[in-house]
Amino acid sequence: MPEKYFEIRWHGRAGQGAKSASQFLTEAAEESGKYSTSFPEYGAERTGAPMKAFNRIADVPIRLRSDIENPDVVCVIDDTLLKNPEITSGLSEDKLLLVNTTRSIEEVRKLTKFKGKIGVVPATEIALEEIGRPIPNTTMIGALIRATDVVPMDAVKQKIRAAFARKFSESVVQANIRALERGYQEVKFSE
């Protein structure tokens, strides 16, 4: 019987941080004792072009190296992509669609026609308020942890400290931790 991996597919546009979020999540998962892989898939390699990134996280070694066709969670970093049917492709109704948006859950449902669980978080707005830049990845990871608990929050905070303290001031580190926590606290889910 094949091993079950927790699989996440990220959708965004090149330059918005989907690849970085995926890689960051994998590193935090590994540092918390799990196995994890992360890889991107680009169409036209230019800033603004739609792209995907993928995570597999497990308690056992991961041997599968293909794209993720039936994810447990789809994370959408750019809500202008919601009308694209590829967003919910392979996402069963007992799984989660998590979207960075100021739109309501009902609007997301109408745009995507997805009948399963939907989570929405204004990640870009939170990032602007906390970090001062429209980089929603850290906030999206916080929302993802709230929805799935796939990686411990403390592991992600430690990863933020370790990764950012080398390049940025303590105020930038703290701003990213606040964005992470706000994503966790402010995500809203459908019933």
TrEMBL record:
Class in the EC hierarchy, top level: oxidoreductase
Pfam families: POR (PF01558)
Keyword Magnesium: no
Span of the signal peptide: none
Domain named Pyruvate/ketoisovalerate oxidoreductase catalytic: residues: 14-185
UniProt KW keywords: Oxidoreductase, Pyruvate
SUPFAM superfamilies (alphabetical): Pyruvate-ferredoxin oxidoreductase, PFOR, domain III
GO molecular function, one term: pyruvate synthase activity
Gene name linked to the record: porC
EC number assigned by the record: 1.2.7.1
UniProt-recorded name of the protein: Pyruvate synthase subunit PorC
Gene3D superfamilies in the record: Pyruvate-ferredoxin oxidoreductase, PFOR, domain III
